[in-house]
Amino acid sequence: MELWQVLALTLWTGLCIYDILGPSVLLGFRPLIAGFGAGLIMGDVTLGMAIGATMELMALGVYTYGGATIPDYQTGAILGTALAAASDQGVAFGLTVGIPAALLMTQLDVLGRFLPTFWIHAADRAAEEANLRKLGFLHWTAFLPWCLTRMIPVFLAAWLGPAAVEAFSHSIPEWFMKGMTTVGHVLPALGFAMLLKIMPVERYWYFMLFGFVLFAYMKVSLLGIAIFALALTIVYTRLKYGDEEASSGV
Fold first, then answer.
1. Rounded CA gap, 96 and 13, in Å?
2. I need a surface site. Which of 11, 39, 100, 206 has the fewest CB within 10 A?
3. Could you tell me the residue range of the domain that residue 100 belongs to?
4. Handedness of CA 33, 51, 1, 153 (dihedral sign)
């Protein structure tokens, strides 16, 4: 792995984490986008999309409510893509590396949430002193500790290079590889189940049934179903709320 790729992966990781904290412009907090960016850097977009898409399915229905710590699937997608591409391995190896990395990042996430408290106390003192320049500086740099908790592990893993990755891959027992492959198949189903649990499925079950028929029996692609669902949603919304507005005289 070349130096520019190591630095680019590190920077991309920081941008993805920063995107979570506010802007949400790049959508880098989504594993699919994170994997795509890593694949673009490594020269294997297909691998990055495959690993990112699998991680995306795992992340469905998982949200960090109230500051709760959840697996960092976007960093897992970046690490999995980078290490799999660097060692000429496939999606299975990328998931074998990415899933444990995502779980490990939950510990670093706690550290990332704790460190900015020092910035908060410094900001309180700056506010008492009416030092707006210092207050602004603290505001725009408070995200750095959170980003560094992901950037440093990605940098170290990428810097070690293919040789270390190859040695690591040979040291992994076969049963563990098979177990991680099984987990990679189970977690997407769990993600879907969690997503369905928070959706009003009992109220709109017929839409889900219609989508299942389109996919399972009519072999419509996911993109086609998504476009059709968008059109159906627009028609349904206009018919429902249009009638309500007309009856209320609006």
1. 19
2. 206
3. 3-199
4. positive
Q: Which residues contact 3 (CB under 8 A, 6 or more apart)?
A: none
Same domain, 225 and 245: yes
Both 153 and 123 in one domain: the answer is yes
Assess whether 108 and 217 both reside in one domain. no
226/184 same-domain check: no
Domain count, the chain: 2
What pLDDT, on a 0 to 100 scale, did the predictor assign at position 177? 65
What's the pTM value of the predicted model, to 2 decimals?
0.68
Nearest to 83 by CA among 111, 91, 243, 118: 91
The answer to whether residues 127 and 172 belong to one domain is yes
| pLDDT, greater one: 111 or 206 | 206
65-82 pLDDT tens trace:
555 667 888 999 999 999
Does residue 130 sit in the same domain as residue 175?
yes
Same domain (yes/no): 222, 191: no
The confidence band for 91, taking pLDDT boundaries of 50, 70 and 90, is confident
Q: What is the pLDDT of residues 116-159, one digit of tens each?
A: 888 888 888 888 888 888 888 888 888 888 888 889 889 988 88
Confidence class for position 173, pLDDT limits 50, 70, 90: confident
Residue-wise over 4-38: b if at least 16 C-beta within 10 A, else e?
ebbebbbbbbbbbbbbbeeeeeeebbbbbbbbbbb
